Amino acid sequence: YYASKVTSKTQWQHPMEEYYKGVVFMRKEGEQLLEEKASRSPPTPEETREMARYFGVHVAHELDLMDIAKAAVNAPLPPEWEEYEDDSGEVLFFNIITKAGVEAAGYGV
User: Which helix H or strand E contains 91, and what residues bound it?
Assistant: First the structure.
């Protein structure tokens, strides 16, 4: 049982559960998928900068985080997520388990 001191929201699910599921996925199979995709289609410097900005990385001052942004350009989605594009070309993500949808928030993945 978890309670947020900030929002007073309570829940049974660990607040970082999705993060840790992502870490496990990347260790099990995601790293290989990432390497394969990056070798077929290496991210451009502009794609890397866009992803860095999306993550809130200051491109000129946080160079140590740019490798993460570069990897994220080609990062595979966790198995329960699917990527779609709407009629206007906006990228959307859909979780097939929770039925939750998320916009790509202005980043054209």
Answer: strand 91-95
